[in-house]
Amino acid sequence: MAGVLILVIGASVRPLWYDEFFTYYVSRLPGPGAIAQALLEGADNGPPFDYWLRNSSMSLFGSSPLALRLPSIAGLLVSAWALAATVRPRQGAAAAWIAVLGLGFTVAPRYGIEARAYSTLLACMAVALWAWQSAVMRPDRRRYAVVLGLALFLSPMTHYYGVLNYLPILAAEVASWGRAPRCGRRWAALVLSLGSVGFLPAFARHAWQMRQHFWAAARNPWSVVDAYSSLFGLGLAFLVFVGVLWFRTRPRSQSAPRSQGDPARRGIAAATGVLLLTPVIVYGMASAFTNAMAHRYALITTLGLALVAALLGAPFAAARPRWTRALIAVLVVVQLASWERQLLGDGAGSDVEGIRTFLGGHAEDLVVEDAQDFLRLYHDLPLREGRQLVYLSDAELSVQHLGYDTDEIALPKLRPYARFHLVDFEAYLRRQSDFLVIVGPEPRWLSSELQLRHYELDLVARVGSHTVYRVRPPAAAR
């Protein structure tokens, strides 16, 4: 309960960030059809299932950040439940706790309070693993095959990297081939679930258009190392700790491992290996097709770490149950402390009140240089002040100065649904002889380009970490 409370508080107090604003404006549209149509027109780069969930949440609980993020919290909780349900029948309750702790020490809780599709996708993968194992262990129960097919069907409908959720299940089937009974039902579920893949190209089309200069491009193989580091976080230290416990209590027998004749164990072991390779697979896909390599695209690999932790911790749990219970209690406290720091410690605001006061004394427009600042201010400020905000767009200049043009492609497609002021850079300069611009702690392409063109930037005010300048044309042009 304490962990759920931290998640709820974190989802309530953390400001929305750039990607989440796209989720917000799309999810608040009136109904599934409008959402799907907006996504087909490029309002955001993803299939509709996660947006439908958030639309339902906002319809029930309002448009607060918590209501927008509730499906992500639910996705994390479902992932933890499915992970424990996968581990417990084979390795016991203590190993299930170790698996859940392993997941909690990774970056997964961070995406459990973010209004993007990654937590939902993680839940689809975890449920698919549980359903596959249950279908193997209880082949007389058809419902497990149905749940397996549904979890896989929803994966590509949640995110275009959801196609990767098929790979661990396929690896599990191959590893258990000839040993698992009644595989026909599971394969029927797999084949029927592929129906959702047919919808994927239509929703991924706009993401494909960004591939040439995407902000998180797959530039070199070190991206894979960065992905593992970002995904595992404290989970890697936890895995080393559990590995030490395993080394002290590992079975000394040289007999064949129990998994050799157990199709469920063999399958889950194979699926775990594929899960751990997900960042490598994402890098390969990015290099060949999408050019999009952000660590969160491989979030399902955190399930692989959790499953390995359970495997290593099971012998110690069986040999020393009292010590195991004590260690789990201590680790739960440590994990909650890390959650409090990770999820609640960086919820600082964005100088909104100071900028609101500034705009109250100025009737003219305020150009916002940074795209994230622009969306946050437009969302947080009252309507009158929000209408004074302007974002200047130029894809070529963004590539020239920053190396990517993601914002310049994405914002025009979102504008019909958010109704903010977005103006072509060159057209605005021709129309305005001088104007106000607000620059954040990290200057973007606009201020650099203005300085290259010898525009004068006179300091007007400092608002927290932001600076407001009066932009005047070069003296020769006056």
Keywords:
478 residues; alpha/beta; 25 helices; 6 strands
Report on this structure.
- A six-stranded mixed beta sheet has the order 3-2-1-4-6-5, sandwiched between helices.
- By secondary structure, the protein is of the alpha/beta class.
- A hairpin with a 2-residue loop joins strand 5 and strand 6 (466-472).
- The relative contact order is 0.11.
- The chain has 25 helices and six strands.
- Helix 4 (49-61) packs across helix 5 and helix 6 packs parallel to helix 18.
- The protein is 65% helix and 6% strand.
- The chain folds into two domains: 2-344, no CATH class; 352-477, no CATH class.
**Global morphology:** elongated
Q: How many runs of DSSP E, i.e. beta strands?
A: 6
Number of helices: 25
Helix content range of the residues, please? 55-70%
Report the major sheet. 6 strands, mixed
Total tally of structural domains: 2
Determine the structural class based on helices, strands and strand pairing.
alpha/beta
**C-alpha Rg (nearest Å):** 25 Å
**Strands across the major sheet, in which order?**
3-2-1-4-6-5
Strand content: 5-15%
How confident overall, as mean pLDDT?
89
Note the gap between the termini: 65 Å
